[in-house]
Amino acid sequence: MPLSLRRVPAFLAVSLALASCATTPAARAPLADGATAQVAILETTDVHSNVLSYDYYKAREDDSVGYERVATLIRQARAEFANSLLFDDGDTIQGTVLADFQAKVQPVGCDEELGVYKAFDAMGYDGGTAGNHEFNYGLHFLSQVTGTPMNVDGGTTQRCKGPDYPLVLSNVFSTRDNQPIFKPWAVVTKNIVVTGADGKPQVVPLKVGIIGFTPPPILAWDKQNLEGKVTVTGPVEAARRYLPELQAQHPDIVVGILHGGLNAAPYTPDMENGGWHLAGVDGIDVLLLGHSHTEFPGPRYKDLPDTDATRGFVRGKPAVMGGFFGKDLGVIDLHLVRRDGRWTIDPATTHSEVRPICKGKGDCVPADPAIAPLVAQAHAAAQAYVNTPIGKSDVHFTSYFVDEGNSSALAVVNAAQRDYVQRALPALHPELAGVPVLSAAAPFRTGFGGPDDYTDVPAGTLTLRSAADLYFFPNTLSAVKVDGAGLKAWLEQSAERYNRIDPSKPDPQPLINARHVAFNADQIQGDLSYTIDLTRPAGQRITDLRYQGKPVRPDQPFIVATNNYRASGGGNFPGLDGSNVVLAAPDGNREILAAWLKTKGTVTQADLEPTSWHFAPIKSAGPLTFDCPAGKLDIAKAQHLPPIRMLKDNGDGTAVCAIELSKR
After folding, report:
1. What predicted TM-score, i.e. pTM, was given to this entire model?
2. How many angstroms separate the Cα of 202 from the Cα of each of 4, 13, 113, 340?
3. In this structure, are 148 and 126 located in the same domain?
């Protein structure tokens, strides 16, 4: 009976194979057809600098996140599989206070490695790509911390300390020379243990080509960092351009590392989630995905055409998307068979899976002890920094029940943004004096990442940590000019956060449209009021739109304070494409908020506007349900929201609630 490597521990399989190579000259001969190999492709994505299991916004340990626990899963996978490769899919260097501290407060030097890359290097990555958030701190920082000299405006030609693995990116080019700012592809060679056609183990080299892609909309999302400096193409176009070069190196398999998800809509070069289309490109054998902050394989993609959302195939190609924030490890159990003198993938025995660090509440793998010491100094400095007091508040700012009308965490952001624009705009555009200034803010933490993924800033002393909790992303402030029709269209798209409700339906109806993410559900304030009628179809839900109590005219001009992401087209809101920006501030929204809080000294309810909208009354036959945090109904009552009751406690900090909308 042939020796099955799957049943042999990894260390023993390697030992057997090495012994075979040392004593059998035939082991170095070309592999005969019929040889087989099992290779685990391991993937991290959207770690967002969550190196440790720590919540900087709540100043406490959080076992449900953290790369230090993913590192444990990596070691477990390597013990399970004799052969493995490890790749990162991007959105690595931004996302926590630690990241902001090392980028903006005490920037790392040219000879110093970024904390998250230290952690990755400790685990020995084979390659990676850049996500959209890699560009948030600008090209100079990106060039420096990735150790990539860039012939691009704002970059650095120095070769600084970057990660020890190759970063590849094929669809972003310098405007100076039209060349990619990173290497578009690379070939990684690993010795692997295989089972020969004779059933004996051997060690042979496996050449793995890697090619990387980032979301094309980065030009809009990071316009202030990238405009005029780089150009971007779609992933399909980039693949077709560079795959011939890569294939000329005769790799055994090619892994496409796309920081993007899956969307089967007709392809366009600026598509945000082009993975489904990239899977259809000849020459891509395996696909690593990210950006969508979800898992593949998984139920979200069960209806996607030509996709096996259980075993992890997209258009016949094995694929995986391994979660976010250091919550999961993506694993492709890749089975190779030697046919016609080359390796081919056996789809019958290959499959993908996403392995979580926590199987349930309190059931999490331990942290790998090697990781925390690597960032201990920077972690301590970041903690001290965010605990700097900046003021006080009489208000409890939370995003609990924000979809149901609790705007406390958004009202303070809108107050700061509106104040900034009202003070800064007259000097730049005196002709806009007298045009009403509004402000738009969206919730960033609404429980998507688990029961602790909410903004929660208690009344009392405010610190820089409070500002970071209230404004999660490192956006900069922008202001746009719109008319009343554009304002209504903006609100209509935000209202797509909700499902259409059939009042006559006796069965439970979900309130929230899960496909419309919370950070694309803006709430606009500034002497504004409006009603959301959920019985109406999308695009027709905003009624009784008023400014200072008077109906808004379609041609009435407004200035709306927002962030650079939204102003330049992020979220694909109608009329927002960067062309109507009247103020592009150099200051970050978070820094503007912190300065406003410091100037106020003590924030009271009088400093904040009440929620600008309410639901139209609905007398529904069945309950209107939504996922909610357990044990927080007192907050809903304190905010005078429509009656909310808990239907089910899930026992993990989450619950199912129902809202009563029969009365205003």
Report:
1. 0.78
2. 12, 9, 37, 19
3. yes
